[in-house]
From TrEMBL:
Pfam families xref list: 2_5_RNA_ligase2
Keywords from the UniProt entry: Ligase
Record-given protein name: 2'-5' RNA ligase family protein
Stored InterPro entries: Cyclic_Pdiesterase
Length: 171
């Protein structure tokens, strides 16, 4: 995964208007919960325990990173099969709904699981990006073994976070 993302970043590095995602900040966002100052420590503890109960019955999931996704917010690698992580997300969403009073579940009804490799920081044509990623990078397997709860913020055009908890799939 790191090599594939690095290859994509290398192909995009010469283009203006993109903030490349460094290896340490690569991630697949499963579910945004809400603002950290609106969620109590007790809710975080209860949500994490509830999510662990849901996720302990799921086995780790292997997906493929292969399809390049172009979006006005950036460039990403889509996972295949695209619905492979739906059960993981459903368990997390259920835990949030049960344990967190103020959440953003209604704000994200659709989900396209992806690994972002670059964020757009300006308007412009997608053509140079599409051309830079030709030929398309090859597929890469990715084993999803856990889910991490993080406190995230955007600093200097990059998402950065502090890990609060890690919940393994399959207990």
């Amino acid at each position: 995964m790191h090599a594939l993302a690095g290859k994509c970043r290398g192909q995009l590095a010469h283009l203006p208007g993109l903030d490349l995602v460094p290896t340490e900040w690569l991630h697949i966002t499963t579910q945004i919960i809400g603002f950290a100052d609106e969620i109590s420590t007790a809710e975080i503890t209860a949500m994490t325990a509830s999510a662990a109960k849901h996720l302990q019955v799921l086995s780790p999931v292997t997906v493929g990173l292969q399809r390049v996704l172009f979006h006005d917010e950036g460039v990403a690698l889509g996972i295949h099969p695209p619905r492979a992580l739906d059960a993981v997300r459903a368990g997390i969403r259920d835990a949030i709904a049960k344990e967190v009073a103020v959440h953003q579940l209604a704000d994200e009804p659709d989900w396209t699981p992806h690994l972002s490799v670059a964020y757009s920081n300006s308007d412009g044509s997608a053509t140079p990006i599409i051309e830079a990623l030709t030929p398309r990078p090859g597929p890469c397997p990715l084993a999803v073994r856990d889910v991490q709860l993080v406190a995230q913020e955007r600093v200097d055009h990059l998402y950065r976070w502090e890990r609060i908890a890690a919940i393994p799939l399959g207990g």
